[in-house]
Amino acid sequence: MADVVLITGASEGIGRATAFTFARGGYRLALAARTAETLKQTAIDLEQSLNAEVLAVPTDVTQPEQVQNLVERTLERYGRIDCLINNAGICMSGPFLQTTPEHWQALMAVNFWGYLHTIRAVLPDMLKRKKGQIINVGSIGGKMPLPQMSAYCASKYAVSGLTEALRLELQPQGIQVIGVHPGIVSSNFLKRAIFLDEVRPASSPDSQAQTSGGKAREQMQQALESFWVSQPEEVAEAIWDAARQSKSEVVVGMAQWAVGAYTLFPGWVGSLLQNVPR
Ligand SMILES: NC(=O)c1ccc[n+]([C@@H]2O[C@H](COP(=O)([O-])OP(=O)(O)OC[C@H]3O[C@@H](n4cnc5c(N)ncnc54)[C@H](OP(=O)(O)O)[C@@H]3O)[C@@H](O)[C@H]2O)c1
Fold first, then answer.
1. Which atom of ligand 1 is nearest to the CA of 185?
2. What is the pLDDT averaged over residues 59-63?
3. Is residue 93 lining ligand 1, measured as CB closer than 6 Å?
4. Count of CB atoms within 10 A of residue 182's CB?
5. pLDDT tens per residue, range 179-206
6. How far apart (Å, rounded) are the C-alpha atoms in residues 3 and 30?
7. pLDDT of 210 over the 50 cut
8. What residues are annotated to the active site?
9. What is the residue with the minimal CA distance to atom 41 of ligand 1?
10. Residue-level pLDDT at 278
11. What values do phi and psi take at 174, rounded to 5?
């Protein structure tokens, strides 16, 4: 029987591209995202274009009981999960003092706790079979600091720490834990990001008043038009290669140069980042 991959954040961007890549590689798919319509459309596109076997389960990864249901339904349908790809994530940018504890909680709930809930739910089955892969999609922001992105970087550094520590713990039990770190990717991720206005007071994460963030959004838009940008399909290929070749960690595309430079010369790169005009 073909291997089974479970992908979160699978309805758009990197997750959707990864679903197509794994389907082409012969995997059976379990896909999760919150919005039922876009998730269903992704499943239909995969079935129609690649004749893929797809289970689509609308799931909010911040809710452990919904994640448990996702994993139980996947195991009922396919009998096993060979590969978990933790990918669902959100982005936020803004000065530290404008970023309220509620903003931090909202971000960590998806970017960190979402990963934790899925790992906790799939691991008992993988441990029983002494086999499996857990691929955590991190970020360049989990390998080097990015200005005005303390909350996002903290969430992605947490993912890096989780990935590396879990790798040591689970490797002897037959389970590979892999980190894949994209740079800037052309998806709706940055369009959907919360940009906290630098001057207006923060109140709640949903407040329209503080999310206009004109300048920061403009800079992100410029970044999206730069030569640094990867396409979701490039990240999907990197995830596929990492899985097939059992790599521990991959930094995708041009981001590897930035991370390499920061690793070698943290002070110098830090001062360059500090002087980015805002
Ligand atoms: N794009 C970039 O520049 C970039 C750079 C570095 C790292 N990354 C990382 O790559 C991953 C994917 O990014 P992307 O660019 O593909 O983002 P995207 O295009 O915005 O897609 C995000 C996906 O996650 C889902 N999602 C969001 N919140 C969720 C939740 N609470 N529960 C379940 N699903 C949820 C979304 O669907 P619903 O909204 O319907 O739930 C969607 O399917 C993220 O972890 C991100 O941090 C992205």
1. 3
2. 98
3. no
4. 25
5. 999 999 999 998 889 888 644 544 544 4
6. 11
7. no
8. 152
9. 34
10. 65
11. 90, 10
List strands edge to edge, sheet with 4-8.
54-56, 28-32, 4-8, 83-86, 132-137, 175-181, 249-251
Domain ranges of the chain: 4-188+230-274
Q: How many CB atoms lie within 10 A of CB 156?
A: 26
- Tell me: pLDDT of 276 over 90: no
- Checking if the pLDDT of 153 tops 80, the result is yes
- In this predicted model, what pLDDT tens digit does every residue of 250-263 receive, in sequence order? 999 999 999 999 99
Of 187, 195, 226, the one to substitute when testing ligand 1's pocket (max ligand atoms within 8 A of C-beta) is 187
Mutational test site, ligand 1, from 116, 146, 185, 252, max ligand atoms within 8 Å of CB = 185
* Average model confidence (pLDDT) across the chain: 93
Closest approach atom of ligand 1 to CA 14: 16
CATH number attached to the domain at 4-188+230-274 = 3.40.50.720
Q: Is the CB of 179 inside a 6 Å radius of any atom of ligand 1?
A: no
Q: Compute, in angstroms, the gap from residue 134 CA to the centroid of ligand 1.
A: 17
Q: Are 15 and 188 in contact (CB under 8 A)?
A: no
Q: Is 184 a pocket residue for ligand 1 (Cβ < 6 Å)? A: yes
- Residue closest by Cα to atom 18 of ligand 1: 189
Higher local confidence (pLDDT), 278 or 245: 245
**175 within 8 A of 220, measured Cβ to Cβ:** no
* This prediction's pTM: 0.94
